[in-house]
Design a protein that fits this description.
alpha+beta; Alpha-D-Glucose-1,6-Bisphosphate, Chain A, domain 4; eight-stranded antiparallel sheet; 40% strand
Length: 153
């Protein structure tokens, strides 16, 4: 397994709890993850130790486990395998390349702003996609969070 860790970060004019809600609430999750694949959604209870199915509109994607969840501060996923047509597939050479890859979301309050940092492990052939898509996804998280924060104040 030859994974590279890449990091993305943005500062958001909203509380950590508001950003957290945008990240994990089903409605807003679907909005910001549409950057990766239109119709993206997650099937999980978001609890530490639980399974997550990260799926697209066709029921394809990956299954992962929630390694750590500290509400409003940190959530970490370990990616385990691929899902095709809603069915978890056994490991193969393709999934072996990224099996065990981590994806971490950290929220810190800095000078009245929330800094959202995403660290993820990617296989060499997926890095360009992530480098293009993640900044767009974080921009959507920022917009959704700041819009919600404005409505609340």
């Amino acid at each position: 397994m030859n994974l590279k860790r890449i990091t993305f970060s943005t500062k958001i004019k909203a509380s950590k709890s508001e950003v957290w809600k945008v990240l994990l609430d089903d409605t807003t999750y679907r909005q910001w993850t549409s950057v990766f694949s239109e119709g993206s959604y997650a099937v999980t209870d978001w609890k530490e130790g639980s399974k997550v199915l990260f799926l697209d509109a066709k029921g394809d994607g990956m299954y992962s486990t929630i390694v750590r969840n500290i509400p409003n501060e940190f959530i970490s996923f370990k990616h385990l395998g691929e899902v095709k047509n809603g069915i978890e597939k056994p490991f193969d050479l393709k999934t072996k390349e990224w099996e065990g890859a981590m994806e971490n979301y950290t929220l810190k309050e800095i000078a009245g702003l929330t800094e959202l940092t995403v660290e993820l492990d990617g296989a060499e052939d997926s890095l360009d996609f992530f480098k293009d898509a993640f900044p767009k996804a974080l921009e959507k998280v920022k917009t959704l969070s700041e819009t919600k924060a404005t409505v609340l104040t």
